[in-house]
Amino acid sequence: MDMPSAEQPPGQEQEYPGRTAEMDPRPRDEMRDYEGRGLLAGARALITGGDSGIGRAVAVAFAKEGADVAIAYLSEIEDEDAARTAELVEAAGRRCVIIRGDLAIEDNCERAVEQTVTELGGLDVLVNNVATQETVDDLAELSTMQWERTFRVNVHSYFWTIRTALKYLPDGGAIINTSSINGLRGNKTLIDYAATKGAILALTYSLAQSLQDRGIRVNSVAPGPVWTPLIPATLGEEKVGSFGSQVPMGRAAHPDEIAPSYVFFASGRLSSYYSGEVLAPVGGETLPG
After folding, report:
1. Out of 16, 193, 273, 274, which one is annotated catalytic?
2. What is the pLDDT of residue 8?
3. Could you tell me which of 177, 183, 170 has the C-alpha nearest to residue 133?
């Protein structure tokens, strides 16, 4: 079922926001071979977009490192994915809180944080990972509605969850924001998405400075192409058939390959001297600067 190295998935499409069960091949997103070392023992984490893809892999990795987690996700379409993530977290011996709601709405972001704190007894790590995207062939096709929706999901939700979380995060807590290779070098068909991912980097840098006095580390992971449900749900059959082929490694990553970056930033034992940094697992692509 795994995607062979340097081979592409067949062309396919799904209803947005996508479901793992309908993907061919199924992504590696359950951290089956991952062995925790207690790096997050006793921690409480909220992961937005945690039902599938990178978010699922991060949730399971955190659980295997000893953390209880809450996962926030969009809609009932993803209920099955969220339930599977919870099953995996609980199999690792940790608690999982499931929170459904559109994070493009401010109240839902605040509720996600408050529910996490209520049910887990606190919050030590916030992972902002939720995202949406839609391709356009020309800027003239990019509607104001799409532009605003992309920013509300990809940027505004990060601001709303962070602002609420700061009431609960302890001094020495951690915030990890998911950016993208597209935020580092742009993308001609994902103009609004790339703009949001660049904004996330600037937000990360700014918060790392403003929260330094509290010892709260703020970092970002900026992956290249990753095989998640969002891809067949947004790119179209033809683009899915060549997804990831442009990088030097010749393939998209699986979520399991990206999740350890989040463990690194969440664990003070590993990254106590890191704030305002970006880890970019991008399949061998190199960037100037």
Report:
1. 193
2. 79
3. 183
